[in-house]
Amino acid sequence: MIKAHPLHGPNKLKLGVFSTNADGGLAITDVPERWTAGWQDNLTAAQIADRAGLEFMLPIARWRGFGGRNKVREWSFETFTWAAALSVATQRIGLFMTVHVPLVHPLYAAKALATVDHISQGRAGLNIVCGWNPKEFGMFGTPLVEKGYEQAAEWIEILERLYASSEPLDYEGIYYRLKEAVSRPASLQVPRPVTMNAAFGGPGRDFAAAHCDYLFTTFSEMGDAGKHVADIGERADKAGRKVGVYTVAHVVCRPTMEEAQTYYKRYAVDLADHEAVDAHMAGKKEFSQSHDAHAYDRYRQRFAGGAGTYPLIGTPETIAADMAAISGHGYQGIALSFVNYTQELPYFCDHVLPLLRQAGLRGSGPPIPV
User: Fold this and answer.
1) What is this structure's pTM?
2) How far is the C-alpha of 10 from the C-alpha of 12, rounded, in Å?
3) For residue 249, what are the CA distances in angstroms to 18, 222, 335?
4) What is the DSSP letter of 29?
5) How far is CA 346 from its chain centroid?
6) CA distance 370 to 248
7) Which residues of 268-296 are buried (b: 16+ CB within 10 A; e: fewer)?
8) Please, which residues have CB within 8 angstroms of residue 262's CB and are 6 or more apart in sequence?
9) Are 243 and 212 in contact (CB under 8 A)?
10) Rounded CA gap, 44 and 76, in Å?
11) How confident is the model at residue 144 (pLDDT cuts 50, 70, 90)?
């Protein structure tokens, strides 16, 4: 019998590492230590997080970058093979795959996802996204789907039915037609691996409320963080379900506040890749509903620093306090990004995790240091 997935574990505040599979991570910067997403660095970051007792590794799905001097995020590892490889090099951490629904057929996804779930002994997870970048979809000769989450509902229904059915599956929907489809083995997790969706707009949140275990959302101000949890809770209640809410943050953790703020300005203002920042913000603003509308005008540094996510900038004490506040607003977890994961994760784990344990947000965990 497999153990519970790490996202179902006892820690009140779950933590994960976000976007190591892509060039730059979430940062759009020219600093020489910027993340280049080489395989060995991905492996090292995953093993640091695994030893520290973090709950998950979450990749982004990118097929095309945002230009600029570094062609930021043009280099990225495909997420099924990335997760499969990391699963044999780690012991406890959950490994997610991020899938653009319109670009990956559910029959293929069911087979690939179950494969990773078996390799990892039940640690696989699925991040379901519908996509927002028309240039990426153009590479496949596929237009953006007007009702992407309607398609996603069929997609996840097919995947679950493939796992549950002992007989070949016929399916007639608006977006998919399958004839005598089978997918064996089924996933170890029942009825399917842990699912999440990253959504800010209403259709995405309604999809997550009806079909996912967890939803990732952003917020601009700490004072507004709780309203998103309440909104998602109301949508899940209407669907007769419970959905955990997570958020995303970029981290600069240093011994002093001055050091943290100086470095944040250096990489996200002075040495930001401004051409790529402009391209990223313009595309997000026009095609994605991932942020508050005013965020694009007020928080340019956050887009260079971490794709518009919330900044955790400061000392271990101030960052732990901010994370406690996020938990207090009802968030069950946070996905974290850094300028350089292998250089910065050890300090974060050594100095912030003990404070979170003292605050009652995490259990004893593996020995520190990592």
Assistant:
1) 0.92
2) 6
3) 9, 12, 6
4) B
5) 20
6) 23
7) beeebbeebbbbbbebbeeeebbbbeebb
8) none
9) yes
10) 16
11) confident
Peptide bond into 185 cis (omega under 30): yes
**Distance of alpha carbon 174 from alpha carbon 180, whole angstroms:** 18
**Residue 95: beta bridge partners?**
57, 124
Show contacts of 140-143: CB within 8 Å, 24+ apart. 140/63, 140/103, 142/102, 142/103
User: What tokens appear for 188 in the block?
Assistant: 């170890």
**Nearby residues of 103 by Cβ (< 8 Å), 6 or more positions away:** 63, 131, 137, 140, 142
Instruction: Spell out the residues 6+ positions from residue 121 whose beta carbon is closer than 8 angstroms to its own.
Output: 2, 3, 188
Under 8 Å between Cβ of 58 and 198 = no
Q: How far is CA 266 from CA 40, 68, 269, 271, 277, in A?
A: 26, 18, 6, 6, 15
Give the tokens for residue 98: 């991020």
Closest CA to 162 of 180, 177, 182: 182
Q: What is the pLDDT of residues 167-218, one digit of tens each?
A: 999 999 999 999 999 999 999 999 999 999 988 889 999 999 999 999 999 9
CA angle at residue 96 from 94 to 98, to 5 degrees? 170
DSSP element (H, E) containing 45: helix 39-52
Q: Omega of the bond prior to 193 within 30 degrees of 0, cis?
A: no
Q: For tokens 């540094």, what's the residue?
A: 301
Q: C-alpha distances in angstroms, 185 versus 113, 135, 164, 165, 188?
A: 10, 35, 11, 11, 8
